[in-house]
Design brief:
- It contains ten helices and five strands; from the N terminus they run E-H-E-H-E-H-E-H-E-H-H-H-H-H-H.
- By secondary structure, it is α/β, with parallel strands linked by helices.
- It folds into two domains: 120 residues, 3-Layer(aba) Sandwich (Rossmann fold); 77 residues, Rossmann fold (3-Layer(aba) Sandwich), CATH 3.40.50.2300.
- A five-stranded parallel sheet has the order 2-1-3-4-5, sandwiched between helices.
- It is globular and about 50 Å long.
- It starts with a strand and ends in a 9-residue tail after the last helix.
- About 3% of the residues have low confidence.
């Protein structure tokens, strides 16, 4: 059973999300909170596997709460706009996934399952925004990416495909490898670069210049 805490300052939205997730056979909503501070307290009290977190809230916002939950439960960020600058910042702060509030109910439930399983959920629109942010802010440095020389050629290849948004199955098909082999490469790559998950891998790939947007 996946234990979830739902965090949103709008009571109706929060109740709707909780009801939707609570109706799933494999998901149990163990707590709710209206702001970041309450989310931290609720997470400490209930020990959830996943926190479904709104970003924009009064008091302590979801960004700060996500940063403080790093190393604890997985955080699935919900927001209204994929262009929100805070989405990028939340991913860097430790969020394991991102979903628009306009997503279908089935998508939300599946997103919770994906994040709980230790995978990262990064919508293509978020990847595009991430690239745009890196380009506009000049974060991507020239020259060889720091840290990546520790990777084998195959691990670097896998990292590039992860940054392109491909799943393990898609990477396996692209490289003609077994999916389990791809999982092993991903695990080794994350360990060598001291990255938590695939989201951080995407951030790393663009910020270090290993992957550059088309036309750059």
């Amino acid at each position: 059973m996946i234990r979830v805490v739902v965090v949103d300052d709008q009571e109706m939205v929060r109740a709707g999300i909780a009801a939707l997730l609570g109706a799933q056979d494999d998901i149990e909503v163990v707590g709710e909170a209206a702001d970041g501070a309450a989310a931290l307290a609720e997470a400490a009290r209930t020990g959830p596997d996943v926190v479904v977190m709104d970003i924009r809230m009064p008091g302590m916002d979801g960004l700060t709460a996500t940063r403080r939950l790093a190393g604890g439960p997985k955080v699935l960020v919900l927001t209204t706009f994929d262009a929100d600058e805070n989405v990028y910042r939340a991913l860097r702060a430790g969020a394991s996934g991102f979903l628009l509030k306009g997503a279908r109910p089935a998508e939300l439930a599946e997103a919770v399952r994906v994040v709980a399983a230790g995978e990262a959920l990064l919508a293509p629109s978020v990847t595009r925004r991430l690239v745009e942010h890196v380009v506009e802010s000049g974060l991507a440095p020239p020259g060889p990416p720091p840290g990546t020389p520790r990777l084998t050629p195959r691990e670097r290849e896998v990292l590039v495909l992860v940054a392109a948004g491909l799943s393990n199955a898609e990477i396996a098909a692209r490289l003609v490898l077994a999916e389990q082999t791809v999982k092993t490469h991903v695990s080794h790559m994350l360990t060598k670069l001291d990255l938590r998950d695939r989201v951080q891998a995407v951030v790393h790939a663009y910020e270090t210049g290993l992957v550059r947007p088309r036309g750059q």
